[in-house]
Amino acid sequence: MKYFYQQLFGFVSVVLLTIAACGILFYNVMSNNVYTQRSQQLQSYAKGLIATDMSDADIYKLGTILREENVSIAMFDENNAMTYPSSSIDTNSALTEDELNHLKNGAAINLKEVQMNFTGEAVDNLITVYYPIIKNGQYKGYVALASPMSRIQTEVRELRNSMFIAFGTAIIIGIMMSFVFANYQTRRINKLRKATHKISEGDFDVKLPVESRDEFDDLMKDFNNMARSLRESEKEVERQENVRRQFMMDVAHEMRTPLTTMNGLLDGLKYNMVPESRRGRSLELISSETQRLIRLVNENLDYEKIRSNQIVLVQHRFAGIGAIQTVVEQIRELAKVKNNTLRYECDTDFSVYADYDRFVQILVNITKNANQFTDNGEILVKAWNEGKKAIVEISDTGIGIDEREIKEIWERFYKADVSRKSTKYGESGLGLAIVKSLVDSHRGKISVKSEVGKGTTFRVVFPGESEL
Q1: Beta strand segments in 260-377, E
Q2: Domain limits at 250?
């Protein structure tokens, strides 16, 4: 609620200061306007009196009429002597020499809140106008008109009271609107605060309503994006944890099988339970399982080095057809065992910018994987250049991979079909994980297209020197 009161105080302060400033300005303008209108009215009386050549009787009648409107009138000649109303003694006005000179120059004089009459006698506040009489270009005296300030002050007082009512109403409405607006903003902040609290408690499914009207909505939109990112991160952490657990189980399983085999054979040899004729074969099995364990450990170490960028790639451009021929020759005997046909299609000028040994390793692993899941089929290694890029496709007519499993094949120890696993090649399930890491290290791209029962195609793209 602290923010609510801060907002309310700020809004009310602005409203009060604005209304006070506008009120004072408006009051001064309107008060001056009332005085100006009264002065202009007195000047119009004076102009009318001068414009018509009135007799003393007419002036007397006009004076009587003006007195009913609380307007006093007096006339002075060029010698500053009062000629109307007539007096038994000589009477001069109370104007100073400078003011008289001002009149002689043809300019009127407006005096506000004068506390003496035309002749200098003390009276209540008056508003007085002195207007010069100019005939044929000659100064003939002046007319003086005065009106009590009480009437004007009454009008100003009525104006002030009306302003108090109007501005008082405006203040009340302003305070009410400030309360509503401050409460609205506070409720939005409270929503954000409650959502933040849920995030801190681990609830990443929170979502705030966004209307895209102002910066608060932008903030809520950013909050929703943050919550979504945290939710996705949590899912990724959970997925990685599952992968880690599965990895540990797979490592234990992969190691347990050869260790169990070796332990059984060693016990048989130790207690002379293995016939002499089979001792040589038992030793071969122990050696084979030992090599299998060594391969498993080395592949894990190799994978971790590649994944953490601890290997140094010696990249250069070389003729790719020789490397592809080497790979095909390495796998050809394995393909014959499973009655597979292995062939390649490659232009003689095909070239690759990569680390030669790692390039061969990538192709060997993918080709072995294709042979592992193909029986009585065909495996094709096809390579070509597109500009500086080198593209290699390895296709097979094997069992294929389900579309839902394609994203998982790059994980360590993942097997799309455990029942079809070879016992000698690819048994650790690390081949494709290493391939993916090596391709990433080359800043290349690898993709898979597969259809269950029809086969699989791996496509690897190696960028040129200028694209790195």
Answers
A1: 315-319, 341-346, 351-355
A2: 216-304
